Amino acid sequence: MSLVFFRVFLKNLIGMLKRKLKVKITDHHLKEEEILELIEDQKLKEVLLFRLKVIKFHEKHGTKLTIDTLKISKATIYRWKKLWK
Fold this sequence. Notes:
Layout: H1 3-21, H2 32-37, H3 42-61, H4 63-70, H5 74-84
Helix pairs in contact: 3-4
């Protein structure tokens, strides 16, 4: 994952967490794992981890291989990526 994409992803993940969990997160330099530690809801944590893995896989391997391997539609992949931006 490129550094620019990661920063945007992290900024948006923090914003989403603030809205969903009503948590104050002021340090934008937290790693993905540290942010996920702040989430108490295990189901939400699993969903976010899976989506993150899909986005990383897509960045590394491309759309076709992601669709074929993970059985996720193209629309879903791009919708998830848009949510992180």
